[in-house]
Amino acid sequence: MKRVLVVDDERKMRRLLQMLLETLGLESVAADTAEEALALAQAEHFDLVMTDLRLPGMSGKWTAGMVTESDGRAEPFVAVPALARAARRAGAIIVEGCAARTLDIEAGRIAGVVTEAGRVRCAQVVLAGGAWSSGFAANAGVDLPQLMVRSTVARTEVAPQAYNANISQPGLSLRRRADGGYSLATGDVAEHYLSPASFRYFTKFLKLLSISARDVRLRLAAPKGFPGAWGTPSRWSGGEISPFERMRVLNPAPSPAIVRRIEQRLGQRYPALKGVKLAEAWAGMIDVTPDAVPVLGEVKQISGLHLATGLSGHGFGLGPMVGRVVSELIADGGSPFDLRDFRFGRFSDGSRLAPRRPTACSFRTCSTRRTPSAGTPGCRARSVPRRVCTRGRCARSRPPSRKRGSRTTSSASTSPRPRCSSRCRRVGCGSSTVSRR
Ligand SMILES: Cc1cc2nc3c(=O)[nH]c(=O)nc-3n(C[C@H](O)[C@H](O)[C@H](O)COP(=O)(O)OP(=O)(O)OC[C@H]3O[C@@H](n4cnc5c(N)ncnc54)[C@H](O)[C@@H]3O)c2cc1C
Predict the structure, then answer these.
(1) DSSP labels for 328-373?
(2) Pocket test for ligand 1, best of 316, 322, 326, 327 (most atoms within 8 A of CB)
(3) Does 186 lie in the same domain as 61?
(4) Ligand 1 centroid vs 282 CA: distance in angstroms?
(5) Could you say which of 323, 347, 371 is where a domain stops?
(6) Which terminus of the chain has a smaller tally of CB atoms within 10 A, N or C?
(7) pLDDT tens-place string over residues 236-295
């Protein structure tokens, strides 16, 4: 992060924040009204906006926000057919309404795909079946850990253009649509239908679950025919009707509770849209991997089988890049990018399976995004302060010294606490104190 827009109507606070940012080596620009801030944010790029003001048309008092001007938006119903047309122009053959039933494997190598319309011989296959990928892979003997969550969203009727940016704020996010309405998502509730896979992959998903437990609602069982649901066949041959033919389009009903929540929050969070009605709500099954990172690349146990799946809720944005990377892997035999974090083998080689968050370096002079550690490349800190998470207690290894002969029979628990003065930044730690060395 380099540039910060500081917005505060109190001159002293503004100046204080700017001084703080300067000591952190960040560039700051100040504004004292919301209008001035918006004009600046629209004209210039800021990596972070720190504001103690109300933003026009938005409710709530804001401490900080982030402007990402390089973000884009597209209408799926326009973008996806456009990509398909472009692929056809480039020579791709797209066959719709035809399920791939299973893989044709000879001596550990791909020999083709068995579809409901017959066998297609080929040496390379890409499995990009979204929420169906894990079941398809399992039928071919490949263990691909993947679970699904139902996500419900809605759109409004045509409404005035009060907001043109995509806005993501707690409780309700919004983006302007090409048809003059707004797409809306609460973003804080995902529903997981319990299935045999929930238990099979429980330990692999434990970390992800512990991080997102507050946002996940468990539902007893998936509707009939859903991928991996109880009763959906887990094994079939190329001669049998596959689960993909029994359910051609995975189209779950939206959750009425979440739709009500969207309705209630619309006017509260975006006062300029108070009274605007919802025109439609829909849902989809989002496929998630244990670390919420896609799986890209070849499966070592079956030569010629490539995975491009597990896009974990970001596939509309990532899709075009994923397509390009995987096609290069196959056509050129490699990628200019380091794809190690995306490899399939991470699920079985003992790698730590947890979503990663960048941890900011807390040492003042360090510009890296890492936790300080002596010798970290790019870390300018000569010595690194030891930070110990104390979960509310000071974890000094030695109690403060006692004077010999003193009548105080102090112990670590009775001696005055050493001063702890900064907030613990350790991810997942709720402690407000850390001991300082
Ligand atoms: C409500 C909602 C909102 C979302 N919002 C965003 C967003 O704002 N930004 C974003 O980036 N992502 C978003 N996503 C996530 C995004 O839609 C998915 O990550 C993306 O669609 C996954 O792409 P995919 O190609 O892997 O799978 P899919 O889009 O599911 O495509 C897989 C296709 O393969 C077909 N298929 C499966 N098995 C077979 C088979 N055996 N034979 C033939 N065909 C088969 C399926 O029918 C399907 O058409 C959202 C998802 C939902 C549900």
Answers:
(1) HHHHHSS-SS--GGG-GGGGTS----S--------STT--SSSPP-
(2) 316
(3) no
(4) 14
(5) 347
(6) C
(7) 999 999 999 999 999 999 999 999 999 999 999 999 999 999 999 999 999 999 999 999
